[in-house]
User: What shape does this take?
Amino acid sequence: MSADGNAQNELPDIVRTTSGLKAQLKQNGKPVLSAYGLGGRDAARCETLIREANRLGAWFIPHFSPSSGEATIGEEQAAEIAARSTSADGYFFFGAGAPPDALARSTALLSSTFRRIGKTFMTSVTPYYRGLSNGTNYRAFETDGFSGMAKEWQAAIESGANWVQIVTWNDWAESTYVAPIGSTSKAHVYNTRFGELLNHTAYLDASRYYIAWFKTGARPVIESDALYYFYRLHPVDLRTDMAKALVDPSAVPPRSLAPLTARVHVTAFMTRPRYADGDMWRK
Assistant: This one.
């Protein structure tokens, strides 16, 4: 269970109504509770909410941002987060809104930091990020198909992170979802403002290998060949139609720290070495 946004004003009700549910995850006999952006930018309120969760008997592992924001986590940010987590049971690194390399480095640094102070660290892995043109996060990060998510999985495994959360299950607005959409191609889901959503289940299916690796601590044996491919449906190098952009925000490309690719990205899990020749897989 995660207390996000205004729900942070309802911690007593959240703990009371969910702690007895069979599906509620428990740690040390306590209901596990997390949060995104705990306290907003108010560090004092963040601390107050942590203490309230403790008083309510929750096992609390929240996310909150350091004072500098969360684009990247360096030594200074990691130290601040650790110091502010003293009253919590652990810390959740939400990630998502940054390039995969930066997210992987942040995971490694935070995992090491929280291992030193003896608290649980939950990191994240994210398939892809692209905000809506009619929203406030109209930006995108290049993930090179599944490669970016694979980097984040390996950082979680190699750094010894305690828990991993796939961010996200169904955040349609930022395209980080892995939930099935009821179609193998694209579909309208939940609200028409999200437009036609593309199928992302290949990110989840390809993650099975890393999930097994994370849970067992051993690299799995691949028992059957699997191939996943990822590509964009729209050109990435078109000039902006400024006249259209005045009435249609999507006429302007999303903000991006690096050029987005127009390639087809392929990830293969093979039982034995093979090589690709053109559009064919052969021995």
Remarks:
- The two ends are 48 Å apart (CA to CA).
